[in-house]
Amino acid sequence: MRKAVTDLQRDFAMTMLAEYTFPRKKAAIYGVIVGILIGYGNTFLDLDFSFRPALLGWLIAAILVVVVLHEGIHGGVGVRLGHRPVFGFEPPLVYTTYKEKIPRGHFIAIALAPLIILDILFVAMYKSDSLKLFADLGFAVNTIGSIGDVWIVLKLMRHGRGTFVQDTKTGVQVWGPETVT
Fold first, then answer.
1. Residues 143, 125: Cα–Cα separation, whole Å
2. DSSP 115-148
3. Is the pTM of this model over 0.70?
């Protein structure tokens, strides 16, 4: 698969069609809103979130596990599609990026995979009495942490299937065939 993408990129000259930079302040607001919605939904589940050392321990565990699994899934799906992920850590960010331009469809699959896979896993884990709290916290952490991925996918939906995406760590550039005028 990797060779086919590289050959396709060489077959035509590309020009940058758009560039999107992730709005971190808006994302923080959206994260709070998603957290409130998850908390509101939790009123039906009757979990006790009153502060106690065990809750803090479970939250820290959920954050660590989710971050590692989330970025690992980005990388694993990228490898499966023929791309080479680059993992990075620049506190407070942990990220997965790609140096090459990636077909739009591949980028969308890479971006959404952790949200879909991990949230399904946490919903399934919720049925276990001993893991309910961890599953609930993991679901919330993963969903809130996926806001940037969903934002990028929404931006990419404006562009056609023949476009490529270059990750810039703070956003994306969309590239397409040069048009002759």
1. 15
2. HHHHHHHHHHHTTSGGGHHHHHHHHHHHHHHTHH
3. yes
